[in-house]
Amino acid sequence: DAGITQSPRHKVTETGTPVTLRCHQTENHRYMYWYRQDPGHGLRLIHYSYGVKDTDKGEVSDGYSVSRSKTEDFLLTLESATSSQTSVYFCAISLNVGGAANEQFFGPGTRLTVL
Amino acid sequence: AQTVTQSQPEMSVQEAETVTLSCTYDTSESDYYLFWYKQPPSRQMILVIRQEAYKQQNATENRFSVNFQKAAKSFSLKISDSQLGDAAMYFCAYNNAGNMLTFGGGTRLMVKP
Question: How far apart are the CA of A87 and the nearest CA of chain B, in angstroms?
């Protein structure tokens, strides 16, 4: 258990409203990631962070922003939610980057529905 | 950009039998890592096995093993003595020793009692 929690676990919101998802880790790992999972696409990287206040875009970053003000928390914000952002969102942490295996460990996921 | 392809959307296997899930990838890198993740109905992503591209020996974890063919860019997962608890979505993933995991579309494995 890599000590990753996500909140909320489920959320239903309306188009045009702002939404923030939170990822919290207890392992003090430097690297954190946000993915979205949609049928037929596996998981796709939205944004990632390589340290406090250090973030970068992933494959599907349009419409999303992130912030990391402290090591343990990585926030994903949808400024104005759209129906195309209905998805399951996963947070992950990396134990070794540039090291042995670069494996990532995942949180339990957040199911977001935008009506 | 790297791509990962899982050509089998669904597979089924009889309990106690062996099944192989296929994965191919496209890359111009020589140093990278490959992974298989399992996602049961609980939605939790569980790392099953990993393979370093520089290692010729295929990785093995108990009933799970891989057949890594670097020249063919193929990375299949073999599950021996299949159990009901193996029923899940399985995702192949590629990492180029950087920060991005690229996933395949997944294979749904059903295990018949």
Answer: 13
